[in-house]
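FW: tagging you since you asked about this chain on Friday. Here's the raw sequence from the shared folder, copied in full. Didn't touch anything.
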Amino acid sequence: MASRRPGAEEWVPARPSLRTLRSAVQECRGCELYRDATQGVMGDGARRAGLVLLGEQPGDQEDQQGEPFVGPAGRVLDEALADADLAATDVFRTNVVKHFRWSGTRGKRRIHQSPNKGHVEACRPWLRAELALVRPRGVVVLGSTAGQALYGPQFRVGESRGRALPWPDDLDLAHPPAWAVATTHPSAVLRARDERQAAYDALVADLRVAVRLLGA
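HL: got it, structure written out here
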């Protein structure tokens, strides 16, 4: 019988701050991903950001640098935020899973492998702590893993993107976000190749929905 993942709850500080969360995640043994990752990567951004950008997990460069969205997908996201008139200083960026899952290498780069449901569940206490501290008005869900972490396995980006979604109530937050907006992960733009511009324009359009909701 496979051993049950303990989850991250026991490693989350009782009275957390963003600084203590970044320190505490380095000791997390809530699932096995810590064994092959360089470090845990918590979110980064404004302490009282109106908007949280929620992705899947750190990538190769994020794992090395210890910051979210600093690799190629992060550069796409930076450009899209600017085109959507969202100041980078007004958002908080994080991922549902805090350690990099990878399988094999291509040259010097480690190949991304998506986290499974057990990894997402194990990391939920970290996400809950971040959202409780930041108290955003809304969340932009970047991709299917983040969407399924909030809305369950039935979630599909294509069916849900570009509109306000009601916030799920199972994270037990005292001050939950009012809404979420789903869109593709910026890494999907990089994979689009011949349709890259269309994929990028759709990402920007979804981010503009969040901008309008913030201004409402």
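FW: The chain has eight helices and eight strands.
HL: agreed, and The mean pLDDT is 94.
FW: great, closing this out.
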